[in-house]
Amino acid sequence: MAARLWRGRELIAATSRQAVRTRVNRGELLRARRGVYADRALDDEDALRALFLCLPPEAMLARQSAARRYGIDVPREDAVHIYLPPEVARPRLPGLVVHHAVLPVQNPTVIRGIPCVPPARCAVDLARTVRRLDALPVLDAVLRAGLASPEELQAEVHRHSGLRGVRQARELVVLADGRAECRQESQLRLVLIDGGLPPPEPQIWVHDRDGIPRFRIDLGYREQRVGIEYDGVTHLDRDRFRSDRERMNWLDSQGWTMRYFTDRDLYRRPGHIVATVRAALT
Length: 282
Known about the structure:
The chain is of the alpha+beta class. Helices cover 44% and strands 19% of the residues. The chain has 12 helices and 12 strands. Helix 4 crosses helix 5 and helix 7 packs antiparallel against helix 8.
């Protein structure tokens, strides 16, 4: 159950300053933030609601914070990112990152009571401002979740013309593909594209002789029958390992050349990935 929250000035107006102080001393109220009180300890959701009670009414969650609110996998950080119109004074609160955006934001999306910049705006803002390897997964995830269409992303990036980083955003919006199923898959695809290889197709189903789909490959090139997969920690499970071996042997019997990569390859040896796949294709 969510904590009940009150602004301090509202409590004082309804009772008195001394009454509020007495309730705090008795443990009936907790000071959630300066000027905000709660009836119990706060979880992360309550803490966010308490923060918004301290912010101007125009405030909206933005960038990484809005992406997490939409259920998009982005690198974790403690700071809360908000959008405010340029004419609204910047609140000075710890852990708060304020973005005074030149482009106005209209029609915010409200998620569990918290206003957020719309998904297409959130995705393009990140595509402009974070590194390429973290930006494409956001665009892919927005498409996969149905939060925005390719046309909406294109229209949004056009609105950002002339702003810092828009060239990167424009390039990545064209590459975005909602078939990608995880962040590392999107990043692996981008490594191959940036390495000069043709864009691989995400999530390829391989059928048996009766036309029944048997196994799905993360990324691949159908014509050359080359498949590419990212092996995360889930592949260390013994049952998963056995299943992977059965799958690998069957794909090999169907003429597929499979190449597997890990986080070490993705984040430390991208050149190795490109060279390995290029050799398999040629």
